[in-house]
Specification:
By secondary structure, this protein is α+β, with helices and mostly antiparallel strands. It has 8 helices and 16 strands. This is Endonuclease/exonuclease/phosphatase domain-containing protein.
C-alpha cells in the first residue's frame, strides 16, 4: 500500500502529466497528494480520470499560484477535516483497515508566512494523541547536511519545524533513494540542493505501520522529487497477477496467442476443458507481453539508475546537460507497458 506526495510545480504541461501517470502506474498509490497544481478543479478532474483515481478534493489556486489536489481510490475512505492554502487534513482508512489521521502539507515558500503555518500546525495537533502522519513539501531545511549550495543553513527557520517535532512528539520516516528532494536545476557553483519533502509520524502511527518507508522517485518535469510512502515497507516481489491490457487488442500477435491458447486440450477432462484453455491462454499472453513490452521496463530502469548516479551532488555543466537529456529520454519511455 502506497501514498504519494509531489510538488508538481504546475500540472499544465503534458510532460508533467505523463510523469505523474507513470508514477501512479509504477507505485499504484491509494492516495495521491499534489501541491502547486496551479490549475482549477475542472482541468484537474480531467487529469484525475485519466489516472483512474476515483475520488478527489481540491484547494483552488489563487490566480496561478498554489493549489492542492488530493485523489484517492475506491478502496480508501477519506474524510477531509480541515483545509487551507497550505494543507489538507484528513482521517482515512485504506482497504477497510484501522483509521489514521493524515495531514498533507505544502509549506509556505515565504519566510513571512512560515512561522504562522508551523504554529497553526501545532495548534491543529495539540489535542491529537493518536495515529497521525504528515507528508509533503515542508519548504524547510531541517539540518545543515540537508543543504548544498546557496545561502548558509539558517537554524532560525528550522526552529519552527523542530517546535512541531518536539511539541507533537513526531518521528521522521526513513527515506530511501536520495538525500535531497529539491534542486534549482543549475550547474556547478550555482547549484542548490535541499531536502524539503518528508514524512513525519506520531509514535502511535509508527506502531500501526512499523515497516513504513519513504522513497524518492526521479524528479521529472518538476524541481521536486516525488515522495512515496510505502506503508508496508519494501515487500519482496512475488508472482504478479495476470492482467489483460486493452491495448493488446491492437496487436495482431495478441490474437494469434489467444487462438493458440484456446485450441482444444488433448486428454483434458471435458468438465475442466474451459479452465485448461484459460490457463494456457493466460500463460501464452503473459510470455508474449513480457517479450514485447519488457524491454521498456529495462530501458526505464537503466535510465533511472543513470540519473540517480548523477543527481544528489552539484553537477558540472556537461553532467547537468546529460541529466536533462536522460530525463527527456525517460519521459518518452512508455512505462505503462511495464
Amino acid at each position: 500500500m502506497a501514498v504519494m506526495a509531489w510538488n508538481v510545480r504546475g500540472l499544465g504541461q503534458q510532460e508533467t502529466v505523463r510523469a505523474l501517470k507513470n508514477m501512479i502506474f509504477k507505485f499504484k498509490p491509494r492516495v495521491v497528494f499534489l501541491s502547486e497544481t496551479k490549475q482549477k478543479k475542472r482541468y484537474l478532474e480531467k487529469i484525475r480520470m485519466k489516472m483512474k483515481m476515483h475520488n478527489s478534493f481540491y484547494v483552488e489556486p489563487i490566480g496561478k499560484a498554489g493549489g492542492l489536489a488530493l485523489w484517492w481510490t475506491n478502496d480508501t475512505s477519506v474524510n477531509v477535516l480541515n483545509h487551507g492554502r497550505n494543507l489538507i487534513d484528513t482521517r482515512l482508512s485504506i482497504n477497510g483497515e484501522e483509521e489514521w489521521f493524515g495531514t498533507f502539507i505544502y509549506g509556505p515558500p515565504y519566510d513571512a508566512e512560515k512561522q504562522h503555518f508551523w504554529e497553526s500546525l501545532i495548534n491543529l495537533l495539540s489535542n491529537m494523541h493518536e495515529k497521525w502522519c504528515i507528508m509533503g513539501d515542508s519548504n524547510i531545511v531541517a539540518r545543515a547536511d540537508e543543504k548544498v549550495g546557496g545561502a548558509p543553513f539558517d537554524f532560525s527557520r528550522a526552529k519552527w519545524f523542530y517546535d512541531v517535532i518536539n511539541k507533537c512528539g513526531l518521528l521522521e520516516i526513513p527515506t530511501k533513494g536520495g538525500t535531497f528532494t529539491w534542486s534549482n536545476q543549475r550547474s556547478q557553483e550555482d547549484a542548490i540542493l535541499e531536502k524539503l519533502d518528508r514524512v513525519l509520524s506520531s509514535l502511535e502511527w509508527n506502531k500501526l505501520f512499523p515497516k513504513a518507508l519513504a522513497c524518492l522517485d526521479v524528479a521529472i518535469a518538476s524541481d521536486h522529487a516525488p515522495i512515496i510512502l510505502l506503508l508496508q515497507g519494501l515487500n519482496k516481489k512475488g508472482r504478479r497477477d495476470f492482467k489483460f491490457e486493452s491495448k493488446w487488442l491492437l496487436e495482431e500477435e495478441c490474437a494469434r496467442e489467444v487462438t493458440e491458447g484456446w485450441k482444444p486440450v488433448q486428454y483434458a477432462d471435458s468438465n475442466n476443458m474451459f479452465g485448461r484453455k484459460m490457463k494456457r491462454t493466460r500463460l501464452k499472453l503473459s510470455k508474449w507481453s513480457k517479450v514485447k513490452y519488457g524491454k521498456n521496463k529495462k530501458v526505464a530502469d537503466e535510465l533511472i539508475n543513470k540519473i540517480k548516479a548523477l543527481e544528489g551532488k552539484p553537477l558540472s555543466f556537461t553532467e547537468a546537460k546529460e541529466v536533462k537529456e536522460l530525463k527527456k529520454e525517460l519521459d518518452k519511455t512508455d512505462q505503462h507497458d511495464m
